[in-house]
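Example 3.2
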Amino acid sequence: MTEQLDIQTIDLIRTGRFYGDIFSVLGMHEEKNPTGKKIIVVRTFQPQAEKIELINCNTKETFLMNKRTSDGFFECVFADSSFFEYAFKITLYGGDTYETRDVYSFLPVLGDFDLYLFNEGTHKEIYEKLGAHLIAHQGCKGVCFAVWAPNAKRVSVVGNFNDWDGRRHVMRPRGQSGVWELFIPHLKEWSIYKYEIIGADGELLPLKIDPYGQAFEMRPKTGTLVFDQNTYDWNDSHWISRERYRVNALDKPISVYEVHFGSWRRNALENNRWLTYREMAEELPAYLLENKFTHVEFLPLAEYPFDGSWGYQPTGLYAPTSRYGSPNDFKYLIDKLHQAGIGVIMDWVPAHFPKDAFGLSNFDGTALYEHQDPRLGEHKDWGTKIYNYGRNEVSCFLSANALFWIREYHIDALRVDAVASMLYLDYSRKEGEWIPNKYGGRENIEAINFLRRLNEYIYGENVGAVTFAEESTSWPMVSKPTYIGGLGFGYKWNMGWMHDTLEYMQHDPVLRKYRQNELTFSFLYTFYENFILPLSHDEVVHGKGPMIDKMPGDFWQKMANLRLYYTYQFMHPGKKLLFMGNEFAVRREWNYADSLDWDLLKNPIHLGLLRLIKELNTLYQTKSELYELDCEPGGFEWIDGSDSDNSVLTFMRKNKAGDTLIIACNFTPVVRKDYRIGVNQAGQYKEIFNSDDTLFAGSGVINKDILETSDGWNFKPFSLTVTLPPLGVSVFQLKKERE
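Structure, written as tokens:
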């Protein structure tokens, strides 16, 4: 290296404009002096240092380094020497000193095969390689940083450990992989960092978070935190090995309680603050057990900047939000839920990401995670970017993230948000605002392939883990296996059932006889998919009001309609989901910034509705007729779906053994005495559930007596004569001889 070139290189490093491999200049190198003699040269750039002493770690000799520039470029030359291990003793301006190994004395950490799999899009554990990881490397503990930024001219790690100076920890490019890497010795857990990136055009970008960052500062701060995933001792091994598969199965009861973490319950004594993960662990499992829910579903908890997005615009897909505590605190909550026998579902958002400058948008100065063309790369309705599912590294980032939550946080199921927006290129777009696929169609082939591969990964390698699709169109075989052409999800949200039944329930009972088809239409397709019946957060926001306000009539009738509606939901084939607060009829629209109005439970009518939900969950889980054949036509049989004049539906639910429950739903406030219902078996029947029971704050119109069958009715060989409660559901069961 000539003296002139050396000066030019030094100047590029000092100004942060060195775009080559920084390891070729800094660190220890064998070179030749002007006379051609071999020498060993050690160079470092430490602008914070007044002086640096180089320590030979083998001999303990100390050498004062030559300060080539006033702003901290140091050099030390050794004649007649070979490579040796060394460290720096750095004296800061002001006199403080510390010792450290040289960042540029370490070999690469990532293997070529890891990089190959990442570029191929098939590295299922890429989160163990990219991001920040506490490791021991060449006998030294520290943190290995790795980030994908293929179009960057320079990438540096900056943080609270280097004065956020991008000149001090410039990263090493790893060949043509697009990955940049750097091992920083002695760095500790919880260090704060970001990436400083100079794009292909030479412009310095806003500081970027780590896409694979596993912890973040509390918003509005956005720094990534170094976190060690291996510091929590789980106590749910029995759940993972034995129970997860059982509770998520198609032939088991699934009753989901959907929760927005920050507004379920707040601490009124402490400025109305939200509960922490650990506080929630002491309250939520007990509440779920008391009311007999089988699962809890959390609205997205991956890190996100804006409270008002409810988590649906995440920036840190690999980190639980710091709003409620540390990653280990979140693990503690999941652990406690599993120990209580509760399955955990988390909303997962691979459909879009926000445009925040510190996030993934324009990450290396180019459209890296998104498409360049806004007709492919933007959701204008949401003001967000769309992932480029056809780019191997992006697909790898997303699919590994899904596996990450299941493996590292023991999440039992992922509810995949906004699947419809992924499937269609023209989703919410006008003519000319979208680009057809290569066949001229509207299907997003790359997204479809991604979803299929994602589900194959999850089901192939995580026994018992499942996926739920929020898919609002008639796309075929969403919840069917990929090997027969399906998307591979375990379950699909039945948005059609939710829409039609809510539309029906909002009509005055006098008019319901004209809308019977809104109740019966779902039975035409209910076994085409493995459905879950959602009454979710989407139905109680944006001016839609709370569930109780969707019901017609005075307060008593509103509550009776709710009891009727929820009972009908539990009787209808399909797994169940209720958003928090629905179970006791909150009186105002959900607000993400406020607690639910728990004081309503002092009112016996609201408390009665909560008791109804508890008893419905109990009935659902103890009567296999209501769940065992949820996803098969053999689990359902019509008695009469055409009695529109009385607004009555009657049908049967069956289990694998052929046992039957008789369901009668009266959607009017009229007591219907001597109502005949056809049944298949003769004998004595008893009413085992009635939504109008006084226990639930109903009017108490129940069938107390044992019911004897008589002649045929409704094209059935036998019949029952019963009293139907007003705005109520009755459930009857044939008495067995041993009873």
